[in-house]
Amino acid sequence: MGDFRKLKVWVEAKDISVEIYRLTEKGQFTRDFRFRDQIRAAAISIASNIAEGEELMTTKQAIRHFYIAKGSLAEVLTQLIIASELEYIPLPKFEELEKRLTHLSVMLNNLIKYRQKNNLH
After folding, report:
1. Structural domains of the chain, with CATH
2. How far is the C-alpha of 104 from the C-alpha of 9, rounded, in Å?
3. How far, in Å, CA of 52 to CA of 81, rounded?
4. Number of Cα atoms under 13 Å in the Cβ half of residue 74
5. 77 confidence band (pLDDT: 50, 70, 90)
6. Helix 59-85 with 91-118: angle, nearest 10 deg
7. Choosing a second label site near 76 at 20 to 30 A (CA), which of 12, 61, 84, 102?
8. DSSP letter assigned to residue 7
9. How many angstroms separate the Cα of 78 from the Cα of each of 33, 46, 73, 111?
10. What are all long-range contacts of 50-56, with beta carbons under 8 Å and residues at least 24 apart?
């Protein structure tokens, strides 16, 4: 445990957050403030909880935050599905982000399993 910036899972979560911020700066999101703010907050929560978990001093605390990140990931995916169905975002962009979020979820699962197995402090 240590420098969260070295974790590939954090880098991908951060990059997805930046992309969602940029995506929500235009189109229908410019008029739907509540939805825009909700998806942005959830996206930021993924990377933030990975970082916080990585910096905590016990495996139990870290894993708890990694699970919170997974919950936020599910929230973002749900919101992207809704945004796609409302035609706030084009289908190809939704499919790209869905694929990236699915891969991120696998990465988080692997990190959790690794930490559980090795009980890193």
Report:
1. 4-118 (1.20.1440.60)
2. 7
3. 27
4. 5
5. very high
6. 170
7. 61
8. -
9. 17, 14, 9, 23
10. 50/4, 50/7, 50/9, 50/10, 50/13, 50/108, 51/4, 51/10, 54/1, 54/2, 54/3, 54/4, 54/7, 54/10, 55/1, 55/2, 55/4, 56/1
- Token pair 């910096």 in the structure block, residue: 55
- Residue in the structure block whose two tokens are 């690794």: 114
pTM of the model: 0.92
Tokens of 102: 């699915």
Closest CA to 101 of 47, 28, 53, 64: 47
Residue 121 C-beta-side C-alpha neighbours within 13 Å:
0
Quick check: 21 and 97 in contact, CB under 8 A? no
Q: Tokens 């990377």 identify what position?
A: 47
